[in-house]
Amino acid sequence: MTNNGIVKILVAGLVGGFIGNGVLGALFSSPPIQAILYNPEWQSQLFIEITPKRNIPVSVAGLVLLSVVHAWLFSVFMPSIPGKTWLKKGLFWGLTIWLMYWLFQEWFIYNTLLGEPLVLNALELTILILGSLVEGIVIAWFLARKPSGSAG
After folding, report:
1. Which pLDDT does position 51 carry in this prediction?
2. What percent of the chain has pLDDT over 90?
3. S-S: 132 plus which of 27, 53, 98, 100, CB 3.0-4.6 Å?
4. Global pTM?
5. For 14, phi and psi rounded to 5 degrees?
């Protein structure tokens, strides 16, 4: 892999992670979503007690850095990722990120450990797929898009 390829992967991952997590942050911090997720009549007490103690900047920084791994994996698997255009490849990759990371995390951490009800897991997973799709599309834009003037 050339230095240019490494730089493209780093940029794709950092930008994809930053934008994808920006979408997540905007949605999760919105008053309507906060009102639902932290409603004591619906949410587990453990979730309400523990989640505000997260160090959000450190969490987001870690997720953005993890997106560099997502970009590297995209570059490795790109020839076999379904879709003829960078957009379709990006959508598929976003779905893959969601299935491989967020689905597991929501079940294992939030449902199993913190006791979050399934309906609230479903709400979070709906938000998380939006951020994952954005991340996948941005990564594909950097790594799978054809040069200007060509199709794709």
Report:
1. 87
2. 82
3. 98
4. 0.90
5. -65, -45
Q: How many domains does one find in the chain?
A: 1
Instruction: For Cα atoms 86, 70, 15, give the angle at the middle one, nearest 5 degrees.
Output: 70
Mean pLDDT calculated for residue range 100-125: 93
Q: 149 in the Ramachandran plot: left (φ > 0), alpha (ψ -120 to 50) or beta?
A: left
Residue 95: half-sphere exposure toward Cβ, Cα within 13 Å: 9
The single residue listed with the structure tokens 């979050």 is 116
Residues of the domain holding 128:
3-143
How far from the centroid of its chain's Cα atoms is residue 3's Cα? 26
Q: How far apart are CA 142 and CA 11, in angstroms?
A: 8
Which ranges in 2-102 belong to alpha helices (H)?
3-28, 31-37, 45-50, 56-77, 86-97
